[in-house]
Amino acid sequence: MGEVLSALNRIDDALKCYDKVIVLEKDSSDAWENKGTLLRIKIQQILTKVGIILLPATRNKVIKLFYDAEIAYNKAIEIDPGDGVSHFKRAALLIERSRIDNQNKEFLINRGLVDLKRAVAISSDYKKKAMSDSSFELIFGNQKFRNIVA
After folding, report:
1. Rounded to whole angstroms, how far apart are CA atoms 95 and 110?
2. 52: DSSP letter
3. Within a 10 A sphere around the Cβ of 1, how many other Cβ atoms?
4. Which helix (DSSP H) or strand (DSSP E) does residue 44 occupy?
5. Quick one: pLDDT at residue 2?
6. Across 20-24, 132-136, 146-150, least confident range
7. How much is the pLDDT for 1?
8. CB 5 within 8 A of CB 14
9. What are the tens digits of pLDDT across the range 17-50?
10. Please, what are the domains in the chain?
11. How do residues 96-117 score in pLDDT, each as one tens digit?
12. How far apart are CA 144 and CA 54, in angstroms?
């Protein structure tokens, strides 16, 4: 049901659906990963509307969504550490967050690179995905990134 609601761009309803699944199936890494992805979509919708320069209230809301998405991916990885998708998506999330969180930019990029490296260790397919994913554009020139995707 969450996937259908998401496809209809009813992100808040889809999030509620995944929250219900998580209550019933706490160990569903897919539900946690899907929740993280929906929160990323919500972040992108906000940033598309208002741009990268955020007023304090909007910035706080977006940062909270980033934290919530990270928590969802953390939980998915805790349940299934071998899930490359969650590592890859958390890497993308952290790199995306570094665009608006200048105070923690380098820290976030480095954490994102650690997750990307884990995803690539699980499946080398993530090298190509990282090179074509706009979330990683910010670090295409980063030597650590280039070493991971080489």
Report:
1. 9
2. S
3. 12
4. helix 29-50
5. 60
6. 20-24
7. 66
8. yes
9. 888 889 998 899 999 999 999 999 999 988 888 7
10. 2-149 (1.25.40.10)
11. 999 988 899 999 999 999 999 9
12. 29
Residue holding tokens 């929906």? 38
Cα–Cα distances in Å, from 99 out to 27, 79, 85, 117, 148? 32, 29, 22, 20, 21
Q: Retrieve residue 62's tokens.
A: 């977006």
- Contacts of 31-34 spanning 24+ positions with Cβ under 8 A: 31/2, 32/72, 32/73, 32/75, 32/76, 32/79, 32/86, 33/72, 33/73, 33/76, 33/83, 33/85, 33/86, 33/89, 34/2, 34/3, 34/6
**Which tokens hold the place of 16?**
């509620």
The pTM of the full predicted model, rounded to 2 decimals, is: 0.90
Quote the CA–CA distance of 25 and 66 in Å, as a whole number: 23
Task: Classify burial at 29, counting beta carbons within 10 Å of its beta carbon; exposed 0-12, middle 13-18, buried 19 or more.
Answer: buried
The answer to whether residue 129 scores a pLDDT higher than 90 is yes
Q: What's the DSSP call for residue 142?
A: -
